[in-house]
Structures are given as C-alpha cells and as structure tokens.
Amino acid sequence: MVSTVVPVSSPRVAEMVKLLENRFRAVNIGLVNELALMSHRLDVDVWEVIDAASTKPFGFMPFYPGPGLGGHCIPIDPYYLSWKARQNGFESRFIELAGHINSGMPRFVVELVVAALSEQRKPLLEARVHLFGVAYKPSVGDVRESPAIDIAHLLQRGGAVVSYSDPHVPRVNHAGLELEAIPCEAALEQGFDCGVITTGHPEFDYVAIVERSVCLVDTRNALRGLSGDHIHRL
Question: Which of 102, 127, 143, 154 has the fewest CB atoms within 10 Å, i.e. is most exposed?
Fold first, then answer.
C-alpha cells in the first residue's frame, strides 16, 4: 500500500500521529484565517503578508486562508481527539478555537458577497450568484464538508439565486440544495451579478472570468496577478 513504513511502538501512537498531522493543519489554517479576518478590518493584503513571511528561510511554514475547511479529515478528525481528551479530563482549546474560526469562514464569504453586491446597489435578495467550484479542493470531485456547499446554503437562505460551475462535480444534492453544474463558458455567457471563486480548479480560465464578470469574490487567491476594481479578495 505504501512505499515507506515508519514503525512506531503501538497502534495507539500511530493513531495519535494521524491526529497530530490533522490537528497541525487545522490549527494553522485557523490561525491564518483569523489573520485574514483581521487583515480585512485593517485593510491589509493578507496574501502579500504571507508571501513576504515565506521569504524567511527558517521557522515559518506558509498556510493560506480560504472559505473554510473541507474533506473527510481536517474538519472532523481533530474533534475525535478533543472528544477523547474530554473523556480524560483534558480540554483541547486549540482544536475548539480553530474549529470556531474555520467554521465561520463561509459566513464571512457571504458577507463579502453582500458587500460586493452593495457596491452595485444590488441586494442579496434575488441576486444571481455563481460559484466557481464546489469541491473542497482543486482537481477532485469530493464535496464532503466542502465550504462551498455551506456558502451555497447561506446564499440561498438570503434569497440569492445560486448556480455553479465545477468540471469534477456534475450535480449537488445536499440537505435541500439541489443544483446542476453549468459549464463555465455558459455561465459567463448568461452572466451573473456576482461570481465567487470557491475552489481553485486549474481548469477554469481565470483571465476570461475576470474579463467577463461584473463582480467577483476570490476566496482562493486564484486571480493572483489579475486586477480590476470589480475583484474583491478574501
């Protein structure tokens, strides 16, 4: 199954290794998501901050903000450890705090959409909002715990007309959310009030998306190097 086996003293230790790795990423993503929220308030480009910090040759590992956590590991596995720790009288505060920050990111993305629409004097109610990507990460069709699904739910509850493009996910049927994918070219042809880059699929033509959209919210820094007053970045 694997090319390299790393022996440890017991399955108990092996399980904790997996949980440490998941916890490490969850906490560091929570940290950088909090930095993104803070930077938004302070009018600082969080992506530029991370790029500059990454030039340090030691002691820093870059993590990047986003619309939330997805997949079947990082959003879930650390809570197994937190639950087990509570059974043994220990409170894992880092896990709980990171979870609180990460789970709040979809709502923040919706706030960015509302703000972007307001610049066009459009309310969220009946606004056409198109999501570019619903998979939880690029180049896969996995929507488990995908923050894009949470964003779509929140937008619909706010009265928006939601659509999406994703070359790996032909349809979504999740807790009352029923959508069929629209090819990216067709979505640009039809037009929308606000587009949201929720998954950085390499298949998307980001230059065309920027040129043919009236309003964009980029949660993945997928539009790096592209500019326009209609682009709103996380």
Answer: 154
194 is catalytic: no
Taking the C-alpha atoms of residue 75 and residue 72, their distance in angstroms, rounded to an integer, is: 7
User: What is the spatial distance between Cα 189 and Cα 111, in angstroms, rounded to a whole number?
Assistant: 26
162 CB-near residues (< 8 Å, 6+ apart)? 129, 130, 131, 152, 155, 156, 179
How far from 93 is each of 32, 35, 62, 85, 132, CA to CA, in Å?
Answer: 17, 18, 22, 11, 34
Q: Distance between the two ends of the chain, CA-based, in angstroms?
A: 39
> E strand or H helix at 200, and its extent?
none
Q: What does pTM read for this prediction?
A: 0.93
Give me the residues of the chain with pLDDT under 50, please.
none
Q: Which residues face 218 on adjacent strands?
A: 197, 233
Selected catalytic residue, list 73, 184, 194, 215: 73
H-type alpha helices, 104-205:
105-118, 147-157, 184-190
Hey, what amino acid is at 45? D
pLDDT tens digit sequence for 9-48 = 999 999 999 999 999 999 999 999 999 999 999 999 999 9
Domains, the chain, with CATH or none: 11-103 (3.40.50.720), 105-233 (3.40.50.720)
Distance between CA atoms of residues 226 and 118, nearest Å: 22
